[in-house]
Amino acid sequence: MFLLRKRLFYLVLSILFCTFHSIYATEPKPNLEEDYILILNPDAETCAWSEMMIPHTKKVLEQRHPEYKVHVQYMYGLGMSSMDDVEGFKQQLFSDYSTPPKFLLLYEADIFGFLREDLEKHWPDVPVLLVAREEYVGPAENYLFRKSIPKDEQLLLTDLVNEKKNLTVVYNPFDIPGTLKIMKKMQPHVNKIFFITDERYISTRLRDDVAREIKNHYPEWELENLTPDKLTTDELIQGFLGIPKENGILYFTWFNNELTGNQDLILQTNAYRIFSLYVNNPIITVNDVGLKESGMLGGSYSRFEQVMETSLNAIDAMIKGDQKQRFVQVPLPIPTFNYMAMQNHGIDLSDVPANAYLYHRPLTFLEKNKDLILGLAIIIFLSILAIRITIVLKTRKMQDKEIKLLQKYGDLFTNMPIGYRQDRVLLDAQGKPVDFVVEELNPGIKEWFPAIDTFIGRKGSEVFEEGNEDMLAIYGDLLSKKKEKAVQPFHYKEADRYYSIIVSPASEYGYMDLFFVDMTELLKTQELLQTVNDKLSLALEIANVIPWKWHLQDNTIESDIRIIVGQSHDDLGIEKQEIIIPAEEYLQNIHADDRPRIEAAWVALVKEGALKAKEEYRVRRKDREGYDWVEGQAIVQKRDENGNPVTIMGSSLVITERKQFEEELRKAKDKAEESNRLKTAFLANMSHEIRTPLNAIVGFSHILAHTEDIEGRQEYINIIETNNELLLQLVGDILDLSKLEAGTVEYNYVDVDLNTLLEEQQKIYQDKVGKEVEVIFDEREPYCFVNVEKKLMTQALSNLLANATKFTDKGSIRFGYKIEEGMLRFHVTDTGRGISKERLNEIFHRFIKLDHFMQGAGLGLSLCQMIVNTMGGKVGVDSEEGVGSTFWFTFPYKTPMEAAG
Predict the structure, then answer these.
(1) Domain 18-171 adopts which CATH fold?
(2) pTM given for the model
(3) What angle do CA 56, 57, 59 make, to 5 degrees?
(4) pLDDT of 445-480, one tens digit each?
C-alpha cells in the first residue's frame, strides 16, 4: 500500500514537472506567403534543449530581421522506429514547406544526417546553419537505430563546409574529461557512477565516450548506465532515494516513450526538473540544459547563452552576406555551476576552479556598485585637482595678504580696546616658576594703568605688591600643560575697576600673553539684574507660581524649580537654579488621563495659532506616590522668520488644595442632592405604602359596619387585622431605619440559647407558608449560648425569612448558622424565583421590589443590611434566576462568659 502511494505521488509530480507530447502530433500547416526562416529540430518541442533554445532564437531573429517570418518544425526523432517514419517526415516537411525558406537553421548533426541528400535535391541553394555537438555526420540508419558510426563512414563537418558553399557549422563539443574531472574534485569519495541517458543516438555516443574516459583515467570507478528501456521514470526516482554518498550521478537527458492509460504512445521529456528534488547527492551534468533552474550541480561545457549568441551571430552574418568563417566554434567549455545547488550540498567556493562560471552567484560589492565607484573616483579625482588648483591660487593670494595683515596686526595691537601684557617666566633649577619679567605692553593697557609703562624689563616681585603667587601658580599650570588657558579676576582698587585677565602661553616657550578685559560695567549690570531677579523670584515663590520656558527646537523645558518633574531642590541636592530637562520627561509625569488634553492644547498653541493655552492637569509628586494638581498657562514668546513658534513661555500654579476643596464641595453638593432625592423618594413610597393598608382598613371597616353575616364579618376582620400588621411593620421598619441612621439605637445584649430562638422562628414561618413549602432549620451547633443584641439579630434573620416566604411557592426554605472566624454566620436558602445577575447589585437598596405586586415597601433587605453593618458584620447574596437564592450575614459572636469579662 505504501509503495502504491509513493508511485502515485511520483506520477503527480511527473505530471507537474514534466511534459508529455504525442509522437504523432503534427505542426499546423505554415503560411508561406512571406519570406521566412525555417528552424528544424530533431527532438520534441518540449524537451529541455528545445524549450531553452528554439523560442529564444525565434524571438531574437524576428526582432533583428522583421523582414522574415520564422517557422519552427520538430522531428520527434525518438518516436521514429523505421525508415518509413523518416520518409514520412521528409515528405510532410517538403510538402508543408513547398516554397523554400530563405535560410535554414538545423540543431544537431542527426537531423542533418537524415536530410542531407534531400536538402541538395529540394533546396540546393538555401543557406544552412548547422549547430552540432559532433564533428562529423553519418548514415541516417545509424541515427535511426542509435548505432555508433564507424570511422570509415564518418563525414567530417570541416570537409563538408569546404565542399558546400551554402553550409555553415557552429560547433559545440562535449567536454567529458573536464566534467569527470569536476566530479572527482567535488566528490573525491565516489566509487560508482550512475550515468543517466536516453535512447537517442547522441546518448549512445556519450555512453561510449564516458566509458572510455573512466577506463583510461578513473579505473577505480564502477560505471552503470541508466536508460529508459530498462527503467521507468518512477523506478529511476525510487532507486535514487537514499543512495549512499559514495555514488556519483552523471546526467545527460531522459527522453522516454511511455503508454498512457488509453494505450497512446507519448514522449516524456524534462524529467530532469524533478530529479534534484529527490536525490540528496550532487548531480553532475554533461551539458547546460536547465542547470540554472533544475537544482543540478553543474559540469564543464559552454553555457547555453554562449551557444545561443554564437548561433545568432552566425545566422546574422549569413543574412547580411558578410561571413568571415563558416566553421565557428563556441567559446571553449569551462566549469559551470549552480551556486544555489552548491550551497544546498555544502560545497564551498574555495573548491570551485578560478575560471568557473556560477549561475545565481551573489554579486560582489564591486560588481553591484562598479558604476557608482567609477563615478565617485572621477568626482574625487576632479575634486582633488580642483582643490589643488584652488590651494595654489589661494596660497599666492595669501602671500600677498600676509604682508598687509602684518601691517594691520601692528595697528590692531596698538589700537585694540583691551590691554595686553607679555611676561617672561623665570624658572628655578627644577623648572618651577619663581618670578616673571614684564616684557611688552600695548598702548591700551597704558591708558588704564598710567604707571605701568615703567614696569617693562622689571620683575613682578619688584613692581606688584600682591597677586604674584596666584600668577606664578597659573604660569606653572600652563607650562606643564595642565591647562590651555586661564582666567584670573583682578580688582584695580585705585580706580575701582574690575578686569578679567585671560592668560595663555605664547608661541615661544616660557612666555605668557595676558589680555586685560574691562568687566566693570558688565558686573554692575549683572548685579542689578540679579537684584531684580531675586525680587521677582521671591514674588513668584510667595505666589507659588513656577515660571518655565519651552524651547521647541531641541524640545527642552527650562525652569528654576524641579517641581515640574516631581522633584524639589532638596531631592536634587543642588541650590536653586535654572534647570533644563527634556520635554518628554515632563510629559511622562503628567497623569495619563490628562496627557491627551495637554497635547491637544500644545497643538492648538503651536500649530493652529491659538493665542493662549490654559489647562488644569495632574503631575506626579516628588514621592512618586501621588499627583498634584497644576494650573498651567502658556503663550508663544518667540517665532522664526516663517512665523513658526520657537519658544513658549508659561507658568505653573500648584492648585492641589483648591482642587481638593472643589472636590469636597462637589461631593457635599452631590450628597445633598442625593439626600433630597432619597427624601422625596422616601415620602413618595411611604405615602403609597401607608395609603394602601389604610385604604383597606377604612374600606373594610365601613363594609363591616353594614354586614350582619358572621362568616363575612370574620373575613373582613381578618383582612383588617392583616393590613394593621402590614401598617405596623412598615411604621416599625421606618422607625428602625431612622434610629440606625441617626445612631440613636439602644443596644440590649442578653444571653440567648440560639438553637431555641431559631426553632421558634422555624415554627413561626412554617405557619406562614403554604403546604407545598417546608421551612427547615438544618445547620446548627449542638449547643450554642451567646451574648447578643437579640432584637437586632432576630430582626435581621426574620427579614430574610420573610423575604424568602414571599418568593417561594413550593420546595423548601432552609436556614441555620455556623461559627466562623469569631463570627456567627447565618444563612437563608430558598428554592424560589431567584434573582437575575443584573439586579443583584441593587437588591439591598431601599424601596427596591423585584415584584411590584407583592406586599411590602421594599425596606426589609435594606434594614437588614443597616443592622448588620451597624453591628460590624457583613451581608451578601448568591442567587440564580429560576433556581433560588441564598442570603447570608455575619454577627458578632460572644459567649456569656466572654461577655461577663
Answers:
(1) Rossmann fold (3.40.50)
(2) 0.44
(3) 65
(4) 766 776 676 778 888 788 777 777 888 888 888 888
